[in-house]
Amino acid sequence: MVSLKLVEMAGGGTWPQCAVILGIPWITAQRSLTVLKRSLLPGGLWPLLDTAVEIVAQELDAAAPHVDFAARRRTLSTWQIPVEDLAALTVGLLRLANAESSLTRATATALVWARVTQGDHLHSPSLEALREAQRSTKALVSAIGQLQTPSNRKGTSLRFLQRINDYADGLARALDEGRSRLKRQHPLPSLTAEALAAT
Length: 199
Description:
single chain; 199 residues; mainly alpha; 11 helices
């Protein structure tokens, strides 16, 4: 909801238009708004939300450099983690089941997308593609959930998640600095297993 209000403040427009700009399905935004109204309006707390969003906006304005998350989302809209990069991320993780599977690749792709764009993995292109094809998202959502569940963040799962996060942070820097030649459907240069050996 904060992101919707920030887009509204920055460029105006209706909430459905702001949801489109953010790549959030309007129904998701509408549900969030309904929950917030139910929680905040009866107690007269809505002005507190407005104040909190204004504070966030001021902090974002004061922060430098500004990150163009929309550009990141556009660039990664059809991207998948290259097979070579996934292999580098999983090297030495002997207990990682199905490390080379398409599910593991889709999971890593969704998590990288979410971290780079600061978006919700549920709205990642990997999941949206399944929905558009009218295919089940259950296995992918479950695989992502398994990695993100705090009680599972240990051993191999923790190391894999840390590597995904490091990879995503590097990708974000490359995109922001214009060092990447990444275009739609074109993968980034692969990470090397040696570069990840330290993790």
